[in-house]
Amino acid sequence: MRLSHTLLLLFFPFLVNAQRFVRFISTDNRVYNGDAILPAGTTDAAKSRAARVITGDILGDYKITSQVKSIRKLLAPLPNERVRTVRCVGINYVSHSEETGADVPEWPILFYKPFTALNTPSDPIPITEGYRTQGNFTSKMDYETELVIVIKKTAFNISEDEALDHVLGYSVGHDVSHRGWQVDRGGQPRPQYSMGKGADGWAPWGPAIVSTSIIPDPQTLRLWTKVNGVTQQNETTANMIFGVKQLVAFFSMGITLLPGDVIFTGTPSGVNLGKANPDWLKDGDVVEVGLENVGTCTNVLKYV
Ligand SMILES: *[C@@H]1O[C@H](CO)[C@@H](O)[C@H](O)[C@H]1NC(C)=O
Ligand SMILES: *[C@@H]1O[C@H](CO)[C@@H](O)[C@H](O)[C@H]1NC(C)=O
Ligand SMILES: *[C@@H]1O[C@H](CO)[C@@H](O)[C@H](O)[C@H]1NC(C)=O
Predict the structure, then answer these.
(1) Residue 239 — φ and ψ, nearest 5°?
(2) CA geometry: angle at 212 spanning 244 and 149, to 5°?
(3) pLDDT by residue (tens digit) across 76-125?
(4) What are the backbone angles phi and psi of residue 277, rounded to the nearest 5°?
(5) Whose CA is nearest to atom 2 of ligand 1?
(6) 234 CB less than 6 Å from ligand 3?
(7) Residue nearest to atom 14 of ligand 1 (CA)
(8) Whose CA is nearest to atom 12 of ligand 1?
(9) Which of 222, 269, 291 to mutate to test the pocket of ligand 3 (most atoms within 8 A of CB)?
(10) In CA terms, which of 48, 167, 258, 292 is 20 to 30 Å from 244?
């Protein structure tokens, strides 16, 4: 008793950095920022039922309080409008370039999604009538699991060595993709990334932002996708062509990265686009995207 008390006193002053930033609705129906408390035996923040409340701004000065609130529903870790730019990387795993017949890129392939594409770790992914049927065009919905980088500090013209100082942490993201618009109507070899990937709700992310103190090396994490419970993607971030440091430094060469900006870093193999007999996603399909030590987002496709 006395020993643990002493340990607490000793360690308390060092507990200044949150480990798993979450934003959630509590049982009092109010929205809080918090540091997720993990249940025993899991590192999936989506399973957290409570969090220590954080006051202030997680992108600036904040304080982790001793107040614990229960989690009724996890939201995206930042409100959509705090994320001023959603950067996404095209082909960034050799396995994905091989399955899609794309060249291994010499430089990172960058495209953007509007922040209206961001979605929570659990809400439906809406597929509008236009995206399903426009011009009698068959819907070809696909999944992509990705490691997401969250920028903490403004970055301009920084080196790879400086890159991680500008990162708050990592989330898992789902780069929802309509291959019909992205590829078939893209005027190959120029894909229409924005038409194919930018619709409202087509970027679920979360369930937490796991800090760089928990994940000092982001190139060692397993990431996976399950569709209706069946594993479809399962690879490691060690296989990224351009790693986190390279991407952050490269994108900063002439564009300012702002606090709260996120970077979806590309998907490994296993997507429908790479399959001989694709099983395109349809209304009611449940997609889980997962990242080791971070957690899962589980969203259902919904025709609206
Ligand atoms: C779609 O197909 C239906 C049935 O073949 C046809 O009646 C309709 O005119 C088509 N619509 C468009 C926009 O091509
Ligand atoms: C970018 O960084 C390099 C190396 O630190 C420096 O020489 C150069 O002046 C910087 N350019 C701009 C536009 O800040
Ligand atoms: C992914 O593969 C690893 C190594 O083979 C295995 O341990 C793990 O269970 C797989 N994950 C999923 C979600 O299938």
Answers:
(1) -90, 10
(2) 40
(3) 999 999 999 999 999 999 999 999 998 999 999 999 999 999 999 999 99
(4) -120, 80
(5) 136
(6) yes
(7) 135
(8) 135
(9) 222
(10) 48
* CATH 3.90.850.10 segments of the chain: 80-303
Token pair 């120029």 is found at 190
Tokens of 99: 């399955």
Contact 186, 216 (CB under 8 A): no
Cβ-contact 227, 281 below 8 angstroms? yes
Q: Ligand 3 atom 2: the closest Cα is on which residue?
A: 234
CB 224 near ligand 3, within 6 Å = yes
Counting from 1 in the atom list of ligand 1, the atom nearest the Cα of 135 is 13
What is the number of other CB atoms lying within 10 angstroms of the CB of residue 275?
Answer: 14
- In the reported structure, the alpha carbon of residue 235 is separated from the centroid of ligand 3 by a whole-number distance in angstroms of 8
Q: Are 98 and 269 in contact (CB under 8 A)?
A: yes
Residues in the chain: 304
Coil, strand or helix at 27: coil
Per residue in 43-62, pLDDT (tens digit) is 999 999 999 999 999 999 99
For domain 80-303, give the CATH number.
3.90.850.10
Ligand in nearest proximity to the CA of 254: 2
At 279 the three-state DSSP class reads coil
